[in-house]
Amino acid sequence: MKIREDFLPLNRPSIGETEIAGVTACLRSQWITTGPLCKTFEERFQHLTGARHAVSLSSATAGMHLVLTALGIGPGDEVITPSLTFASTVNMIALSGARPVFLDIHYDTLNINADDIEARITPRTKAIIPVHFAGAPAEMDRILEIADRHRLTVIEDAAHAVGTRYRGIHAGGFGRIAIFSFHPLKNITTGEGGLITHNDEQLEKKLRLLRFHGIERDAWKRYGKGGNPEYDIETPGWKYNLTDIQAALGIAQFSRLAEFNRRRAEIVALYREGLKGVTGLELPGNPAYPHDHAHHLFVVKILAMERERFMEKLSDHNIGYGLHFPACHLLKYVKDRFGIVKLPETERAAEKILSLPLFPDMTDGDVAYVCAAVREILGGAEGGRN
Ligand SMILES: Cc1ncc(COP(=O)(O)O)c(C=O)c1O
Question: What residues make up the domain containing 359?
Answer without folding.
Answer: 257-379
